[in-house]
Amino acid sequence: MIKFVNASFELKNYCYYSGLKFILIVFFFSELLLNSQSLYFKNYTAIDGLSSSEVYDITQDTQGYLWFATDRGLTRYDGSKFTRYTTTDGLPDNVVFNFFEQEDGTIWCTTRSHKIFYFKNAKEGFCKYAYNDLISNNISKRAILSNLAVSDDNHLLLAYQNFDGFLQVDAQGNILNYPYSFKSKEKRTNIYKAHKLAPDFIFEDNRDSYKNAALTLKWHLDSLKNNSSYTRTLKFPNHKLNIVSLGNSFSLIHSSGKKTNKVLSSYKKDAIAIMSGKYDEDTFWVGYQYGGVILRDFKGNFKNHFLKNESVTKLYKDHEGGIWIATLNAGVFYCKEPAILHKSFKSYPVSLTKNEEDELYLAFHNGEVIKKDKNQYKLLYKSLRSFPAYVKYDKEYKELYYGDFSKNWELDKNSKLKGYKYIYGISDDENSTKGFEKNSVRVAVNGEFKSINIPERIFDVSTKENAVLIGTLGGMYIYDNDKLQHLKNKSSYYTHRISDIDSKFDNIYVSTMGAGLVIEKKDTIFSINKKSGLLSDICTEVFVEDPYTIWLGTNRGLNRITLYKNNTYDIDKLSINEGLLCSEIFDIEIIDKNIFIASKEGLFKFPKSIFDHIKQQKKWLEIDHVTLGNKRLDFEDYIVIKCPDPDLKIAFKSISFKDEDGAEYRYKINENSEWNYTNNSSVDLPDLAFGNYLFKLQIKTEDGMWRESIQKSIIILAPFWKTWWFNLIIVGVVVLLVFLSFRFRVLTFDKKLAKIIYFAILNKLRYKEEELFVNIKSDGKIIKLVSNEIGYFKSSRNYVEIYTANKRYLIRKKLDDFYHDLPDLVEFTKVHRSYYVRLDKVAEIKGNKELSVFNTTIPVSKTYVDNLKRISA
């Protein structure tokens, strides 16, 4: 049952009213046969930087760059700029027809002049095939090369249109097989074979002369009528079959060897197929002359049709899942995300709803309401004053409400919205269909409706149990128990503008413009915002799919939030960078496994599984160059710098065709150091000391993870005067000079001084915990006395008295002779002609006349006053 809410002028005149009714009837029963949703393509031509708008082929090299073959040379694209290459850059011919990619990453190219060349990337340059002259001398100028392959033993295999057999040239330039021409194909069976050295290499062999083929296919001439004679082998390992295509004909080759020939039904009579190729594991494409490109499954069933008026030569899927389509007269077309379908209208949709049969309804800013019926769109309503429209389906009462934001309403007498005078909108909360005016909302009190005035402009309402939640320009209000109050005291989140409220699963989900998504549970209120991973804090719509999955629209794109029981969550993002044409989202609806989005640029549709596809996308990352000052350094596995330099710079490149905001990187130069984050494509590493470093670089992918890590060793060689061998030489020279000096100047005159120096050096080399001993003879016994226990010793005629903290020893010896027997004599000093003290045992120095050791006063004579400096030091 449909409830129409008319927002037309106030009707004061019956005749005028009758005229309006006639107009409305016309609108109700008119049907718009609009095109179905399609992919959004961006077009690049010679104006944008292509060598030419006539493009024959597309491929991607091992570094991630896209290459376009044109009639004016090659063009390379890195996601931001086009680089053109011609004969001046090493190409043998400016007309490049096709790319033939080999498993080792080498790309072979064919040209109009039959000169073949190959490359891996632009850095390594273009290499001309060594035996081009040999090919030119043995192949007719009118021959068009249709297939090329290189075997494991570097044999080159070439097949040509309108020629039987193939040309085979070995690695030494010997021709092992020649093709041959024929005059007519009338009433004959065409035989196609695959070479045993290269299973993907298909050639025509109508004489059946090559017996040792990998497979053999036969077509009657009638199946080739009005079709080109190119051949391609497309592998589908998941289905255990290959598809060999020949124009509009194709053959299924199963792993068992079983073969099925079919002819594709063309989209129009006499359609000429230009080329075909594999799209994914279940789909292949066929490009037509002035007929666009058609996708079919491996059984030949139609799946989609793009660029219907263009002559398509190639459809290529890049490493991010985007598709590129080459044409013969309009350059190339690029679609970021083929899973996202788009439909534009003369206005833009502001709200969506669906009924019990999963039929979609759209309300537009210009006052129109449209029903989507399969691939057609039926106009249900049009505002006479072009006020923005709304649409809402009430599941409980199975009623559809739509209208516009005009002032005067005509309502069915049984309508649940009866009683409103100036309806401003209808809640999209599934719990209830509740209308609201600009500054008031009606609630039921004791079976009667009561209008509650709100001091703010209302944007949405919802109900939870007996309470009414009201989202306004100034935040959230609640009406409960006949009382209206603002919820600012409950949470500061509720002071922001509220754009949408959903009450579901005993929780409240609030879309705010400034605080992100606010979730209120029984025990907590928390916000998921930009800091925690949202695209934006300006949120416009919340759609709660289940207790764990929330879809959130913002002014920067769509977020899918996966909630967990402990209030943690994961966030997936879909924005312009991932393929949306517009990031400003107004409404969200889910039908079956598909998401529908109302945005400023129209209606978008994509599967819920799109994020799984995005997470699998690869980002190409490489170090582009390294500079030292103004000089570029050559490097491969590691970077070597002869000495520290303050101007070391590492530039890198990420190949992305989606990311318009630029990539985010992080890097570090040691495994244990912290990550540094940057949006620049180069980093300066100034003032690195000499040594070994490991430069590690990562890029942030669409799922927020850091992946595609690359690393390079940086070796900064020390200057020769800081090398170990140079320092060793210097030390050796110094030691030699000291030795010679002592030998001839000191040791000759003062052997005792030499002994002191010797013991000082020896003691420094000992472990600190190792004890030093001196052997003495006291009381007729040989005693091993620990040196560091001695506090002082003094002379007593021909004897020496040795004092430790607890004992006295008497030995027969001269004072100075005992001093020189000590293993650590540098630890002692003479303070009187009769006294030596140990430096670290001196407890107190009393002026210049005496000191204290073990509570014993020891005199200091004037002769040895300077030795006190050693003690105080």
Automatic annotation (TrEMBL):
The lineage of its organism: Bacteria, Pseudomonadati, Bacteroidota, Flavobacteriia, Flavobacteriales. The chain crosses the membrane at residues 14-34, 724-742. GO terms for molecular function: DNA binding; phosphorelay response regulator activity. This is HTH LytTR-type domain-containing protein. PANTHER family: STAGE 0 SPORULATION PROTEIN A HOMOLOG, TRANSCRIPTIONAL REGULATOR-RELATED. Pfam families: LytTR (PF04397), Reg_prop (PF07494). Residues 774-873 form the HTH LytTR-type domain. PROSITE patterns: HTH_LYTTR. It comes from Tenacibaculum jejuense. Keywords: Membrane, Transmembrane, Transmembrane helix.
